[in-house]
Fold DnaJ homolog subfamily C member 24.
Amino acid sequence: MTHDNRLHRDWYAILDASPSDCVQELKQKYQKLALLYHPDKQSPDTAAGEVEQCVQRFIEVDQAWKILGNEETKRAYDLQRRARELKQNWPVDAHVCLDDMTWDDGEQVYTYGCRCGGEYVVGKEEAEEEEDLVICCDTCSLSIEIKRPA
Ligand SMILES: [Zn+2]
């Protein structure tokens, strides 16, 4: 992956929020997480590695709120996000019927070979419950859309 992750962060996911949340909800979620990951709130027994992770999360949460808490930057980000979603939805390599996939009884998953030699893997429940499910190859950037038996 050569994408710049900083530009492609999902700020909503970082705040444990969804794009449909209002600013008030976003703020509450931000405050909850900021408190949870605040370096000063960690217990003295916490391992150094964990503290470091908390600091990283704290910085991310703070960045997310800086973007989503401001009407202008939020609107710009939402537009960017939509455009990216549309683009991501585009390269579906094939439409595959669940019946065409191979059922792996041991792993309880459906698998399907990608033309790159990689594999598409999807859990039973996900495959059977979600509509218009798009899954990604475990090796390349292709994806397939799974059609459920009618
Ligand atoms: Zn592939």
